[in-house]
């Protein structure tokens, strides 16, 4: 780097600015031979692929504002710091699941990491009707391991409190979730938009006090339930896959929150892929069945892996061995996690049709009448998850509900 001031990179600037970095040159050779391409398709940051000598690395850099909106919406560069801190912890807790970090520069808000290839974003694969072998097992395990190892079930209390304090400063990214996920969907907000034909159901949702209330209670869980280090943004756009391999990226929203948060957000994204399928193919049944099997498998793997860790690796202050807790305590804990997951799942299903950031599963449906009909099923199921999640005690009940609303 030339100096200590932050400067946003461009493909043209990058070789000059990063040409002396060992993390790059050792993999892609000297800067004269680099080909640089900006590929960021996310809402927030710059992502460059740097190619050379038959290899490639990714350079991700935060901008001082929200990429999707522009410099009218400032966003602190510290999110790169939190993304890096989260990547390091996730790599230790579920080895091989996140891209390897090769270099971090706090001033430039920049992470050099492993280039995932030929991986593509999972959401695109699901829209295209492509299956990924092992996706449910990989993600169920990732959610279980990160939930467990970041919590008071595993960590030493002093370290856990210090870490929760560190991540407490990821204020701006939490603020996005607090506004866009839990609040904006349930009122008229400037940044909201929805498919025009949805107007009646949007009005009825916003008039429903039980829904608004339930979402606020989920917000309490979000802000006041620092159980573990969550990924914070685990949607199908934060997952990259081949036909047989699954990796998790983009944990810049990392925060200490409920153990069921990531699982609930992820399940919502599988369910939105499910509801949107009829618009993407003439015979959606097989893909829809597969998506529900992914929901079942993700939950089963989460439960099994979490139970295994609870039984074999409990070293924190919670449920100490000397209190002699057994299966019943584990079941109550799992029910607590599941109940949260269902509430977060409902909020995510709502915000992706009502708030600022929509998802391609629905957004790419050009026939707005059809889009609204499919989004309505998703919104109604989300409402049920928020107000009556006690009636959805397990994954089978969740899948039954998806069938009911489809
Ligand atoms: P944002 O925080 O802006 O959403 P992401 O981390 O999600 O940025 O990255 C945006 C896009 O860049 C991803 O959708 C993916 O296509 C690509 N990308 C990000 N990280 C990698 C990686 N390690 N390997 C390959 N492609 C990546
Ligand atoms: Mg992203
Ligand atoms: Mg991101
Ligand atoms: Mg939309």
UniProtKB/TrEMBL annotation:
<dbReference type="InterPro" id="IPR002575">
    <property type="entry name" value="Aminoglycoside_PTrfase"/>
</dbReference>
<dbReference type="GO" id="GO:0009086">
    <property type="term" value="P:methionine biosynthetic process"/>
</dbReference>
<protein>
    <recommendedName>
        <fullName>S-methyl-5-thioribose kinase</fullName>
        <ecNumber>2.7.1.100</ecNumber>
    </recommendedName>
</protein>
<dbReference type="Pfam" id="PF01636">
    <property type="entry name" value="APH"/>
</dbReference>
<keyword id="KW-0418">Kinase</keyword>
<comment type="subunit">
    <text>Homodimer.</text>
</comment>
<comment type="similarity">
    <text>Belongs to the methylthioribose kinase family.</text>
</comment>
<dbReference type="GO" id="GO:0005524">
    <property type="term" value="F:ATP binding"/>
</dbReference>
<feature type="domain" description="Aminoglycoside phosphotransferase">
    <location>
        <begin position="36"/>
        <end position="270"/>
    </location>
</feature>
<dbReference type="InterPro" id="IPR011009">
    <property type="entry name" value="Kinase-like_dom_sf"/>
</dbReference>
<dbReference type="GO" id="GO:0046522">
    <property type="term" value="F:S-methyl-5-thioribose kinase activity"/>
</dbReference>
<dbReference type="InterPro" id="IPR009212">
    <property type="entry name" value="Methylthioribose_kinase"/>
</dbReference>
<keyword id="KW-0808">Transferase</keyword>
<keyword id="KW-0547">Nucleotide-binding</keyword>
<keyword id="KW-0067">ATP-binding</keyword>
